[in-house]
Amino acid sequence: MMTSMEQVELKVGEMNCAACSSAVEKALKKAPGVHSASVAFATGRATVIGSAIDGDSLAQIATDAGYPSEVIDAGIDPAALATEIETRQQKNAADWKRRAIIGVSIWAPFEGLHWYLYLQNIEASWAPWVMFFASTLSMILVGSGFFTSALAAAKRLQTNMDTLITIGAGAAYFFSLYIFIAKKAFDFDVGHPMYFMEAAALLAIISIGHWLEATSSAKAGSAIRELLKMQPDTAEVVAIDGSTTTIPTGEVGEGVRLLVRPGSRIPVDGIVVDGASEVDESIVTGEPLPVAKGLGDELIAGSMNTTGQLVLETTVDGRHTTVSRIAQLVTTAQSSKAGIQRLADTVSGIFVPIVLAIAAITVICWSVAGSPGDGIVYAVTILVISCPCALGLATPMAVMVAAGESSLRGILVKDASSLELAGKTATVIFDKTGTLTLGKPVVETVETVGVISENELLAFAASVETPSEHPIAYAIVNEAKKRNIQIPIVSNFEASAGSGVHGQVNGQLVSVSKDNAATCKIKLDGNVIGKITVTDEVRPEAKRTVQELQSFGITVHMLSGDRIETAQRVAAEVGIALENVHAEASPSDKTEIVSAMPRPSMMVGDGINDAAALAASDVGVAIASGTNVAMESASIIVPANNIEATVESIHIAKDTLVAIKQNLVFAFMYNVAAIPLAAFGMLGEHGPLIAAAAMGLSDITVIGNAVRLKHKLRKRRMKSQ
Questions:
Q1: pTM, 2 dp
Q2: Among 227, 173, 176, which residue's Cα sits nearest to residue 201?
Q3: Is 680 helix (H, G, I), strand (E, B) or coil?
Q4: What tens digit of pLDDT does each residue of 110-127 get?
Q5: String of b and e for 346-359 (b: at least 16 CB within 10 Å)?
Q6: Which CATH number is associated with domain 438-537?
Q7: How far, in Å, are 76, 293, 624 from residue 299 at the CA level?
Q8: Which fold has domain 395-437+540-650?
């Protein structure tokens, strides 16, 4: 017998980076009955699924892990959540930006002064005081973020990259403070130099990396904010006497009647109980053509009411709408990703305890040998050199180069995790409308009945469609103009929501209405004179793009909310196997389909309805002409007029991934090589200075490798032009 699963939603506070969300996940997964747990750093929410689980107990577990949490309703209040996300993300990014600017402002000038005095062999009595105050200021203003993170990890009996930074900077600072006090207060020369500026350097450089991560997370979260804006903040509730009252959408209950005026978005999912109109449902289907809605038809939250006034009866409350569910899908998919940014914390989880053990053994062994002072210096050297400054730059530097070169090709790369997986892509999934197609309706076929010609049929149809603003009308009128057909003037024009248009043309009644076999049928004085089928135009480069991807051994699929016949026609035209066509798919269907694809997978889309699927794939690629939600949910954005850039993005990703791996090796190479030398005292009393120089050399190596990558990508770009 299968045990029923329950779902608990938590609001999690005080998360500063992706590693924090991972820590909360680990803590929650250990709780009894928990089947899965995902924590979205972008929204500060945790979703826990399991059997016989208690929300309050789970919240307490997350709180005990160092992140204050509380149980919240599983639904989403769009307005409240959008504000909450924006406020929290802006604060986090602003905090790290402030620390980075302060850190560099303190470190750079005083480091320059330090080395100037050292190289000029100038003994200035005031210099130690200046370095002491500068370093202390840096430890207080910049170091607090690292110290807080390291302390939180220590409370959980864990370590992270901030542990290394805290110990290294703290060791350099306090050992220098010991030397400083001994000399100034007791006139005792310990016989070792002070390392105040090395401590400040560690904090400044790594703060820049945290700032980049916070900025990247804010961009990911903005996708959800844009999505939530698709649902109106307020709704008009219709009373029994017909009067209306405006209330926040999040407070709307199930079974409530709402008024939706023309040009307004549907606030909550429901069923039409009065009125008729045409509704743009592209938020869900991605299809450009509005759908006629009348009595008994379903309405989807976030859809745009175009022509008529509607009264709906809600089928869900304001916190469980389609927009809310899509937002939940996006956040869950985002939180389930594991990017290369987390590699540093994973490695440090093993590296830090080893370094601490080596440092402790070094002090003990040298103390036993009768040189405890030297043992402390050598241990400090180990701790300083173990702080992976270059590790904080390894990924951002390569990503910066890739992003810059990509932008010259019209490709926007937004995060490092996509670069890790894009070069290994096994499956590419294209959305149909607006991606493989242009998203602009065009006339596909004109079928006449009787002796009337195609041009005459188009003239009649275009005449009555000219006053209309419907996408089908645009396609018909545009086709008539392309054929240089003289369009007669219509009189007594009338449009009926959901049924069509009609009017007098040269004294005859012409009507254009819906048809089951085609897009529309045209009648002249009540007699059918022809049918017109309107479809979406395939992008010129779509077939070539599919062929190039297939030549790499990549399997190509297509997703669509459109009818199976239409989807298969497009697939056949661009060269996608019919068995790889997934039609009539809702946003949740698309997410499930993408999640089940062979990994690593790349999803290419452009609509709001693609947002969750983009987030569910390993690499989300959005078309620049698409919605902001699709673009913000994606990690790569390609030009609107060139989806072949998808192929180029894979090329760039492969080269960048190689560079990132090389940078990570360089980042640790100096540390690993120098630690034994430091432990055995082979670096001498100036070991910490040598350690700092080694860190600088590793930084230079990482930057140099990034420059090499830039030249390689630029050379290929120039060759292709």
A1: 0.54
A2: 173
A3: coil
A4: 888 877 887 888 878 888
A5: ebbbebbeebbebb
A6: 3.40.1110.10
A7: 19, 8, 28
A8: Rossmann fold (3.40.50)
Q: What is the pLDDT of residues 361-419, one digit of tens each?
A: 998 999 999 888 788 878 877 877 776 556 656 776 777 677 767 766 767 776 666 77
Residue showing tokens 């990482």 = 702
Residue 33 token pair: 């009955």
In the block, tokens 């690499």 appear at 619
Hey, which residues are catalytic here?
431
Q: Give the type of residue at 381.
A: T
**Which ranges in the chain are annotated with CATH 3.40.50.1000?**
395-437+540-650
The reported pLDDT for the residue numbered 411 is 76
For the CA atoms of 172, 174, 175, 176, what is the dihedral angle to 10 degrees? 80
Return the closest-CA partner of residue 604 out of 591, 596, 595, 613.
613
Element (H, E) at 123: none
Instruction: Tell me if residue 284 falls in helix, strand or coil.
Output: helix
Estimate the share of the chain in helix, then strand, then coil, as percent rounded to the nearest 5.
Answer: 55, 20, 25
pLDDT level of residue 662 (50, 70, 90 thresholds)? confident
Span 234-320: which CATH code?
Answer: 2.70.150.10
What residues contact 674, with CB distance under 8 A and at least 6 apart?
385, 683, 690, 691, 694
Q: Are 291 and 305 in contact (CB under 8 A)?
A: no
The residue whose two tokens read 């690593």 is: 600
- CB-facing half-sphere around the CA of 402: CA atoms within 13 A: 31
> 3-state class of 379 per DSSP?
helix
**C-alpha span between 286 and 109 (Å, rounded):** 55
Among the listed residues 171, 156, 149, 142, the one whose alpha carbon sits nearest the alpha carbon of residue 356: 171
Question: Helices H, strands E: what count in the chain?
Answer: 22, 26
At 336 the pLDDT is 45
Backbone phi and psi for residue 637, each to the nearest 5 degrees, phi listed first: -120, 130
- Whether pLDDT at 203 is above 60: yes
The yes-or-no verdict on residue 217 having pLDDT over 60 is: no
Of 29, 33, 32, residue with least CA distance to 46:
29
CA dist., res. 288 & res. 284, Å (int): 11
Tokens standing for 618? 């390993």
Position 630 scores a pLDDT of 59
Token representation of residue 492: 């007594």
In order, the DSSP letters of 602-656 are: EEEE-SGGGHHHHHHSSEEEEETTS-HHHHHH-SEEE-TT-TTHHHHHHHHHHHH
The tens digit of pLDDT for each residue in 595-618 reads 999 988 999 987 666 778 888 888
Cβ-Cβ contacts under 8 Å for 585 (sequence gap 6 or more): 559, 560, 561, 593
Supply 483's token pair.
């054929």
- Looking at the chain, the domain(s) classified CATH 2.70.150.10 span 234-320
Q: What number does CATH give the domain 6-74?
A: 3.30.70.100
Please tell me the distance from the alpha carbon of residue 29 to that of residue 26, in angstroms, as a whole number.
5
- Pairwise pLDDT comparison (202 vs 382), residue with the higher score: 382
d(CA 530, CA 522): 5
DSSP string spanning 334-368? HHT---GGGHHHHHHHHHHHHHHHHHHHHHHHHHH
**601-605 and 619-623: which strand pairing?**
parallel
Tokens representing residue 381 in the block: 């050297």
Say what the pLDDT of residue 139 is: 93
Distance, in Å, from the CA atom of 452 to the CA atom of 295, rounded to the nearest integer, reads 37
Residues of CATH 3.40.1110.10 domain(s) within the chain? 438-537
Phi, psi dihedral angles at 311 (to 5 degrees)? -120, 125
Using a 10 angstrom Cβ sphere, with 0-12 exposed, 13-18 middle and 19 or more buried, the burial of residue 523 is: middle
- CATH 3.30.70.100 segments of the chain: 6-74
